[in-house]
Design brief:
616 residues, 1% strand
């Protein structure tokens, strides 16, 4: 490989940050006090030079060679100079790092954080983000990933070490950890952001570096950072003309994940994406649609442009069809989504696409059309047939079943035999990929079709009460799952107890709306489950004016029936709900739908209570 100085047009980048490459035992007290793990030693030192300092220095030398190789690819198109680290070099680096990993752990109660952070610092200087990430993923052994994970937590020692680094160094570290998918703790990120602000590094970062930083912050879901991202909005805006379509899309996705609403920046991003429309891939388009939908900002001109771009794509494959269909189905731009969905339907029905769809792709596509209530009989029939073939081959997953069951429920298409067979297949799995959303859709879909799947429901319930899954359930998901169990059974005590605790938690209780609240209390009453703390919390939430105004006939009757069925006479709640019904005048006759539902459920107490409230 030619030295980088011999490549025509090679321009040296600004000097790399000086990490502690030349450290020596007497300069590093933490290392100086550690015993040297050598085969023999003398008063003058180690005969076998394997002390941490020597190994670290050796590893650094090899990493610098890898950095030089990255520099070659950095200045040339990736296709012209493939990014490949020499096998012998990779092997040497891994060997050195494995040895270093052993040394920092042998005989130590804790890892020497300073040593690990400095090695990570060297890694973070390995060229531009794509190449740095490629090399880092190549040479990071499982042991070193464990070390990085250990220092990424919010320990006091780690934050003290990081305070010694500069803002530029911390910027590189934050990006490195994000690129190798190791989340940093909140306190560590706060130290990093504070230092970056103090050192005014934003003005020195290129547009690409700034995007990498914002993406890294978004990946960690750090609460301390969105305000800072808003502050650097002007710098981001000025950087947009020099960014590629992938970088602009990544930036937009990161802003959406953090909930950053900077209208001027977002409008400028939309303009830039319109300019880049011809270069946008299907993945880019899906990412853009999803981001603006998540932010809640309409960009009609951009959506028209993106729709036209999709209509020009004739050879879309499943990996592109699914995200594009899902994204446009969620945009709610009715004038642009229908032509796109019709175009995608024609492609889906082609044999070369239909016959290679996976179960998850099949379910996701039908769910995308169900989201916009676009019932294409030919498409629905074809996707159901494909799903049936995959069911027979036992190639199903919980997310795939959830999407299919939910979509069939939305379209009111009865496929009892298919869903029964699919439930039997999925119930034999360990459900490791079950998510709150897929469980919600399965429960809702099966309850809508009145198809009992006891084995599957019990197994899902066993999985749902486990952490960390339990803490990821949101209010609508809890409501639909409980409604499904209440409609079909079985009664699963651990699930009811776990959901009661989760639902009444301060963070989640305030997110319940009238309909979700009604489904929850109805389910507990159906199972005669006396969760008094939950019922008290739900009653208080129901009387919130913002929630109270959203009650309708069905939700009022469900709530009143639930409380009276459990023998809980919550007079204040009944009075408030009675006012809602009085204003709507829904009890004017006994043929009213509310009363019919109440009688159907056997809630004569409900009729009496509401009647008394009306008279009052």
């Amino acid at each position: 490989v030619l030295p980088h100085t011999m490549i025509p047009g090679y321009v040296l980048r600004r000097p790399a940050v000086q990490w502690r490459h030349g450290i020596h035992p007497h300069q590093c007290p933490a290392l100086h006090t550690r015993p040297c793990f050598a085969t023999s030693s003398s008063a003058t030192g180690c005969t076998d030079p394997v002390c941490p300092v020597d190994v670290l220095q050796s590893a650094i030398n090899y990493i610098q060679q890898a950095k030089d190789l990255a520099g070659l690819a950095e200045e040339w198109p990736p296709r012209a100079v493939p990014l490949r680290v020499q096998p012998s070099l990779v092997s040497d680096i891994k060997a050195k790092w494995d040895r270093l990993c052993e040394m920092v752990q042998v005989g130590q109660a804790q890892v020497d954080q300073e040593l690990v952070w400095n090695v990570c610092g060297v890694l973070s200087t390995l060229g531009a983000p794509p190449y740095r990430q490629a090399i880092a993923n190549e040479i990071l052994t499982p042991q070193w990933r464990q070390l990085m994970q250990s220092v990424a937590r919010d320990s006091e020692v780690d934050t003290m070490v990081l305070k010694q680094f500069s803002g530029v160094q911390l910027h590189q570290l934050v990006c490195l950890f994000a690129e190798v998918d190791i989340p940093l703790g909140q306190n560590i990120m706060k130290v990093a952001v504070d230092k970056m602000i103090a050192d005014h590094i934003v003005h020195d970062l290129t547009g690409s570096e700034l995007v990498s930083l914002v993406v890294a912050i978004a990946k960690g879901h750090h609460a301390v950072c969105p305000d800072w991202v808003i502050l650097i909005g002007q710098k981001l805006t000025f950087s947009l003309p020099g960014l590629s379509q992938d970088e602009v899309c990544s930036l937009l996705h990161a802003l959406a994940d953090m909930g950053v609403r900077n209208d001027y920046l977002l409008a400028t991003i939309a303009i830039r994406l319109t300019q880049l429309a011809r270069a946008l891939t299907a993945h880019n388009i899906a990412e853009v649609c999803n981001a603006f939908t998540q932010i809640g900002l309409r960009q009609d001109e951009l959506m028209q442009t993106l729709a036209q771009r999709v209509l020009q794509m004739e050879e879309l494959m499943p990996e592109d069809l699914v995200p594009v269909a899902t994204a446009f189905g969620n945009t709610r731009h009715l004038d642009v989504m229908r032509p796109v969905m019709v175009h995608l339907k024609r492609r889906i029905l082609q044999a070369e696409v239909l016959q290679v769809l996976t179960a998850e792709e099949t379910g996701s596509l039908l769910a995308a059309y169900a989201t916009i209530r676009m019932d294409e009989a030919e498409l629905t029939k074809a996707l159901v047939q494909r799903f049936r073939a995959l069911t027979d081959a036992a190639q199903l997953t919980p997310p795939a079943l959830g999407d299919m069951a939910w979509a069939l429920g939305q379209f009111k298409v009865k496929e009892k035999a298919l869903l029964t067979a699919a439930a039997a297949v999925v119930s034999t799995q360990d459900l490791a990929d079950l998510t709150p959303e897929s469980m919600q859709r399965i429960c809702w879909g099966y309850a809508t079709h009145h198809i009992k799947a006891r084995d599957l429901f019990e197994k899902m319930a066993d999985r749902a009460v486990m952490q960390p899954m339990l803490d990821t359930f949101e209010a609508p998901q809890i409501a639909d799952v409980l409604w499904g169990f209440g409609t079909l059974g079985p009664k699963h005590e651990p699930l009811l107890q776990a959901f009661a605790k989760r639902a009444r938690s301060d963070e989640l209780l305030v997110t319940f709306g009238a309909e979700d609240l009604a489904h929850v209390v109805w389910a507990y009453a159906t199972f005669a489950c006396e969760e008094h703390r939950l019922m008290a919390a739900m009653a208080e939430r129901a009387m919130d004016p913002a929630v109270l105004q959203d009650f309708n006939e069905s939700s009022v009757s469900m709530v009143c029936w639930a409380y009276t069925s459990l023998g809980i006479k919550h007079t204040v709640l009944f009075d408030e709900l009675g006012k809602v019904e009085k204003e709507a005048r829904v009890l004017s006759t006994f043929s009213n739908p509310l009363v019919e539902k109440a009688v159907t459920w056997g809630s004569f107490a409900l009729i009496m209570i509401l009647a008394m409230n009306m008279q009052g």
